[in-house]
Amino acid sequence: MTESPEMLALQQSDATCRMHQEALNEALVDLDLIDLTEMILQNPCKDHRRLLDQFAYRYIRLQDDMGNRLMKSVLLVMGEDIAAMPTIDRLNRLEQIGWLPSAEEWMELRKIRNDFTHEYPEAVEERFVRIQLAIQSARRISDLFDVFHKKIKQRFPELKTED
User: Fold this and answer.
1) Residue 10, in any domain of the structure
2) Full-prediction pTM beyond 0.90?
3) What angle do CA 37, 27, 54 make, to 5 degrees?
4) Which of 2, 32, 67, 86 is the most buried (most CB within 10 A)?
């Protein structure tokens, strides 16, 4: 049996998000181990800078790939016509069908991510606050991906998913 292009896209986006989530979770564990402080942000050593870069990259990629690929793929496989549907309508639809707890929460997580990635305040204290918010947001996004992954496995058991 040949899988539809939509099913293949769902499988691929799920696998990509899983890869980002695994690396993000590793970075989160390592960030907990270093006890991130304002001093570390002010003058990070090479290892801390690499860890912060890994965190930032995987955080951004997981949220982007979930929002731009995985969520669209889920809706397409379910037969939804999303061609002319704005992002907020897709999020609301995912909330309506029980895949996303709150479209509003996702938009707030997106705002935290945008503030973290697009603004780089001079004050170390403000950077510290932003990274703390990003870390909390990353943990929540990882949790939301777990929900999506579980629902994908339940709803589409014929789909090959990685665990």
Assistant:
1) yes
2) yes
3) 95
4) 67
